[in-house]
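Q: Focus on the shape:
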Amino acid sequence: MCGIVGYLGNKSAKDVIIKGLKRLEYRGYDSAGISTLQNNKLEITKTQGKVSDLIAEISTDTHTGGLGIGHTRWATHGVPDNKNAHPHSDNSGKFTLVHNGIIENYQSLKQLLADNGITCKTDTDTEVLVQFMGYLHQKEKLDFVDTVRLALNQVVGAYGIVVLCEDYPDMLIAARLGSPLLLGIGEDEFFVASDSSPIIEYTRNIIFLDEGELAVIKPDEYQVRNISGNEIVPKKVEEIKYNLDEIEKGGYDHFMLKEINEQAYTISEALRGRVNSEESTVILGGIYDWIQQILDAKHIYITACGTSWHASLIGSYILEELLNMPVKVEYASEFRYRETAVNSDSVVICVSQSGETADTLAAIRKAREKGALTLGIVNVVGSSIARETHCGVYIHAGPEIGVASTKAFTGQVTIFNLIGILLAKKKGCDIEKIKPIINDLDALPGLVQSVLDQGNEILPIAEHFMDVENFLYLGRGYQ
């Protein structure tokens, strides 16, 4: 699982998809592939290695159509090699599919296929899914849409998929359950991708597919339907808020270096319009209507994964100190499975850069089932966590491409400070306790920039320690 791009329009699908896959290279991957419809036949090219290796495999007279799908794969089922790379096809060659996620019941589906004389050629769960679609299409005499729906209704697991069918040369189907997908709406063209970076060059108008939804895309229209019941779901078209240059390196050697150097600006963006230094007040419109319920809560939980979990540990110190109430931090993968004391007297704060972290999303759903108020701290506007929590705050850090989080982490810690100040003041905290924190936040972007400006002095230190395998960090409190 890794990056997905799909295209239907008047441009060269090959060119759009290859460029899109290159924009998704930051995710890391071990193989890449593309499938297009050419002369009413599905054509697949895929290879182990980089997108540049894929380009070398594509001859000039292939993949010339305006309908196609592409994928960069990070192996989960099956070793990284040419045969296990996506897209996958069924034995009839009528269906090709790219997939992010894990099909948990692929073994039982594979046995069903074997019992009906269908043998899989690869080790992947993805091939099992597309072979299952081909089997249902032939056995049940279904159209393209109903074939995909029926197959997905029998799948257990998580997926973001895009599918082509040779018999439907003007249709693209995308579906999502547990793995993000969005639809880009252009001028007489449509795009599908696992995030917005392959799309922004062509359109800012997007639709986020929600859990259990399927998009049927044709040259002049699209419909979003519920997978389980096939009902049409009205969707709101949203606008991508960032610019193309924000996902370029901007003269830096790599994205991580760029994002390190953006932190003074992104902290300023997290504070912008939210802090009144003269009155020592904080305004967070995303949680305004829920402030009293938060203050009335008996328990505050914070749940996250990875770097967001580390930001949450700092956040718990901030909230406990300012609110004088217990705050518990849990890894989302633990929170979602174990029995907790979460109930209607609880607030669960969910932290994620992408807003699509699967374990954190599952934790939100569990918390809501138990009656808790959920609050999201996310970076990506309109993401699943932003939509599924009751309320929340954006960190406004812009796209974070580097795998090691930098500006998102400092943005999350900044937002925890703002939430703590706002709630503390509403609770009647002494203004003299709040004012120094606000003054420090005002000074923070400048202090960060002063450190970044010392890059030439810091470089020799980094070079001195670059080969050290282990570091031990000692600190206390916020340190």
Q: What stands out?
A: The first strand starts at residue 3 and ends at 8. Residues 253-448 form a domain with the Rossmann fold fold (CATH 3.40.50.10490). The first helix runs from residue 13 to 23.
